[in-house]
Design a protein that fits this description.
The structure is a homodimer.
Chain A lengths: L4 H29 L2 H8 L4 H7 L2 H19 L9 H17 L6 H11 L5 H24 L5 H20 L1 H7 L7 H26 L13 H12 L5
The structure holds a DNA duplex.
DNA sequence: AATTGTTTCAAACAGTTGTTTGACAACTCA
DNA sequence: TGAGTTGTCAAACAACTGTTTGAAACAATT
């Protein structure tokens, strides 16, 4: 019944080839745009192989998603061990950027994730539970530490989303960025520059929010918000949505 | 030959119905996922109507894109007249958020734009030229003013992208946000809260970058960067991409 | 009333899609 | 060796895609 080495080798070989080819194709044209014929052609397999090995196209996609997530996570883990929250944030941002943009992985993970977020499939729930939520929790703790102990949970969430938004922008809007600023390639040094900028911007942003949100409690030095910050906030509250 | 009122009325009526239905469908399932049969069914028109009025599906899509962009731009224009750069930034962020998230427009514009960015079609070039680049230029000037006159163009770009990234995050990642933080609906008051937060976060971020980038020039008061900011930047430079 | 140009419509067309089928080869284990 | 399982393959299937066609309905002009 079961299957010693050689048959298993054949099984695993085409299965692996399918997964690899599928990752490329899904990253390039998304789940909907991908055709099993194209995937199988690239994998050097027959059309029926997808049905045989993964049940159907959705099964193959789900497997690709999980594998890419695992791969990215293991290759660029969030560094631990730092106790300085600012350094933790820098590490988080760096590993996140590498996961989604690293040309070493052909940025496949980032592209697939971006498509999955904009046009969710049934696989998104699993992805959120297994990959995204743990990251979100990690970031929540870092930001919470930076904001100071008694920060409003909603404020912590908003700051976390400000950080992640900056990162994912380069992943979601690449086609627009390339058109707006051609020649600004994202190689390793560009990625370093990005990491530095987003970290500095976010740290200053979080500290600004902390200072504005918890105005000068005794025993805690907080700088008072600038005039312009207050005025712009009032501007935001002034205008109402037109019907 | 041409065409008094009534015939034109019929023409414009089905054409408008097609545009309206198409905007909904494209926003829901994207260009690829949309079928002309579905669009025509919702518009109460025949399948051949798309070919007759717009040439083909791509022509209809292009028209929808342009019309949505025009509509959003005219309904939520970037407020002008403020001379305070901080207030300008607040106005920019507010109008941007409204354009892409306003439930009044069923967030169609934002959803369509998000799809177009992640999975570009031939229509993206026109969109960038007519709608996105002017906005980018506007933001560049605001950020440049905030950073101070002699700011590095690359730094200005990075800061601008940090601002836009925060905004678009809520547009691109809505499915994930809804799963991570259910119940955090984005109505008018939520939109106000978002505007206030992103504005404050960005102002603090830009000022932090300005202070770190142009260290204490004579005649210009700039606070020195925090210890953690420098340390995190060094962290970013220390780690190298593993092969 | 006949003509003209415009718009709509049911039907069909040609192509692609995901998936299944049944035969065929390769291998394991008795 | 021979039965039985496993993996591969060409071919076919049914459903759906964007687009076209030619006739009909319609309104305005001649």
């Amino acid at each position: 019944m079961r299957t010693a080495a050689s048959k298993n080798a054949s099984h695993a070989a085409t299965r692996g080839a399918l997964l690899h080819a599928a990752a490329d194709v899904f990253a390039e044209v998304g789940f909907r745009g991908a055709t099993v014929r194209d995937i199988c052609r690239r994998a050097g397999a027959n059309v029926a192989a997808v049905s045989y090995h993964f049940g159907d196209k959705a099964g193959l996609y789900s497997e690709v998603l999980a594998e890419q997530s695992r791969l990215a996570q293991s290759r660029y883990p969030v560094p631990t061990g730092d106790d300085d929250p600012a350094a933790q944030l820098g590490g988080f941002i760096r590993s996140f950027l590498q996961r989604v943009l690293s040309p070493e992985l052909h940025a496949r993970h980032g592209r697939i994730m971006a498509r999955e977020m904009v046009e969710p499939t049934a696989a998104l729930d699993r992805l959120v539970a297994e990959a995204i939520r743990p990251q979100s929790e990690m970031l929540r703790e870092i930001v919470s530490a930076l904001l100071g102990g008694a920060a409003d949970p909603a404020t912590v969430r908003l700051c976390g989303m400000s950080v992640v938004g900056q990162i994912l922008f380069y992943c979601h809007c690449r086609p627009v960025i390339d058109r707006l600023f051609p020649g600004a390639e994202l190689d390793a040094t560009g990625l370093d520059r990005l990491t530095t900028h987003i970290t500095a911007f976010s740290l200053a942003g979080i500290r600004g929010i902390a200072a504005a949100g918890a105005p000068s409690r005794p025993g805690q030095r907080a700088r008072t918000p600038h005039r312009a910050e207050r005025s712009s906030a009032s501007v935001a509250a002034k205008r109402t949505v037109r019907t």
